[in-house]
Amino acid sequence: MLIGRQPVPVEAETLLEKIMRFTPASIALALALATVSSAGIGQKPDAQIEPLSVAWLEKGEAAQKAGNLQGANDAYETALAIDPRNRKAFSALGEVARVQGLTGKSIRFYREALLLDPTDLDALAGQGEAMVDKGAIEKAKENLARMKNICRASCGEIGQLAAAIEKGGAAPQLTAKNVAPPQSAVSIPVAEKP
């Protein structure tokens, strides 16, 4: 016999307890679904690139063929300002930077193109060639392996990168072991103490 307290029946949870129990899980699920669905909305296929951006890309290609690298660079940057999803403009900027001898900048532009489409063979080949120019033969071989996984048939980009790796692989690799510390050409006399 209980005095002063009535036994609490083990009934279903109250509505408040259910809300408190399932709210964190439902919020996490809603955030995950919102993130996944918004990622798909943000991706534009090449057919949906702004036409004005494509026109500036074509102007850049014409300037590059004419040998006007600065004009081509400006046109490609304008194409990207109009539509930052234009991966061909990133690849073209990478090519211009590579021709100018700016291999690090070139690799970064190709990386931006690959962030938009990781299967872009032109960007993979261009980045691989820039890596060969920089002396990163192993990284270029990784790009070549990725390209072979993407394109199982005969792709010209694969042969192009393979030839660049073979040509670049014959050159001596610069490593920290091969670099001698700089020698001072000026000797400074040390005064002796009396």
From TrEMBL:
Domain of life: Bacteria
Residues spanning the signal sequence: none
One protein family per Pfam: TPR_2
Keyword Repeat: yes
TPR repeat windows: 53-86, 87-120
Database matches in InterPro entries: TPR-like_helical_dom_sf, TPR_2, TPR_rpt
Key words, A-Z: Repeat, TPR repeat
Protein name per the record: Tetratricopeptide (TPR) repeat protein
Source organism of the structure: Rhizorhapis suberifaciens
